[in-house]
Amino acid sequence: MATTAEKSSLQHLPITLFTTVMGLGGLTTATESVERHFGVPGYASIALLVLTSAVWLTLTAAYLTKWIRYPGAVRDELNNPIRLSFFPAISVGLLLITTSLLPYVPAVTHVLWWIAVAAQLVFTLLILNRWIHTERFTVEHNSPAWFIPILANLLVPISGAPLGYVEVSYFFFAIGIVFWLPLLAISLNRSFFFAPIPQKLMPSLFILIVPPSLGFIAWTALHEGKLDDFGTVLYFFGLFMTLMVISQWRKFVGLPFALTWWAFSFPIASITLATLLYFALSGQEFFLWLGLSLYVVLVLIVATLVVRTTALAFRGQLLVPDN
């Protein structure tokens, strides 16, 4: 029989913990890209893929158990204007895994991709429904984390186009790219004219990097690896957003560690992947070195996050209220 402490821990398993899969999955795909560029064996990316898959499976099983045993706790997260946006991290993690699995088990990849796509559509409709019809949500509740349900749609074409699902990929690309623009306007309006976002959510500013970066990768996948004007605009806007958030580095110094720090990882992975892809398509060596520099930063960030999160778990401070 489970102890009271164990029940309490499971009840407080945060949906935000799935951002660890986003960070690990982003590092996995970035490592695959670096390995391809230098023609080295894929041992590192395979190890990371196994780790990412294991973490996703463990968290998914744990959260399903939480849903069965503590449905009220799950409803509380669905009604939370901040945590609500993190539910698509579940489908994002699976989409990242399917992208990396494609060369090894294509038949399984097709099945997993459809599961991830179906889950992503459900999450998108659910969250948009709540944004539209929940009157207690205000502008102050907005944060860059609100981009997660939208940017998740941009991941679909990255694996979907190579699998041959072009029309479905365009469907999700349209959702992501069109909704990104009004959400960007809302986010900037919130930042310009309202109180700053809570200190704990400051790392989520890095999420602003993701939509244009993934948009560039997805657009290129839909156009068979051809570099055009629209793709170039998306890439360079992603690069500008990277410079913009990095220029605010003083805001991030001294922040106490929390799971929201994982918001640093996937955005850096997305601009790293976009930069290496831009190099591959343009042939300009500057972008190779920029991509490699970003990759080194990504490795250091993820390594730090893994150590800090593991230490939090060993101290029994990971599965606690309002983590």
Explain what this protein looks like in three dimensions:
The chain has 323 residues and is mostly helical. The chain has a single domain, classed as Alpha/alpha barrel (Glycosyltransferase), CATH 1.50.10.150. It is 70% helix and 0% strand. It has twelve helices and no strands. Helix 2 (19-38) packs antiparallel against helix 3 (43-69) and helix 2 (19-38) runs antiparallel to helix 12 (285-314). The chain is globular and about 50 Å long. It starts with a helix and ends in a 9-residue tail after the last helix. The model is unreliable at 1-7 (pLDDT under 50).
List keywords for this structure.
12 helices; Glycosyltransferase; 323 residues; mainly alpha
Mean pLDDT: 90
| Count of all domains | 1
**What is the CATH C level class, in words?**
Mainly Alpha
Helix content: over 70%
Number of helices: 12
Q: Termini distance? A: 26 Å
Structural class: mainly alpha
Q: What is the β-strand count?
A: 0
For CATH, the homologous superfamily is named as Voltage-dependent anion channel
Quaternary state of the chains:
single chain
CATH architecture label: Alpha/alpha barrel
**Contiguous runs where pLDDT drops below 50 for at least 5 residues:** 1-7
Largest sheet: none
Strand content: under 5%
* General form: globular
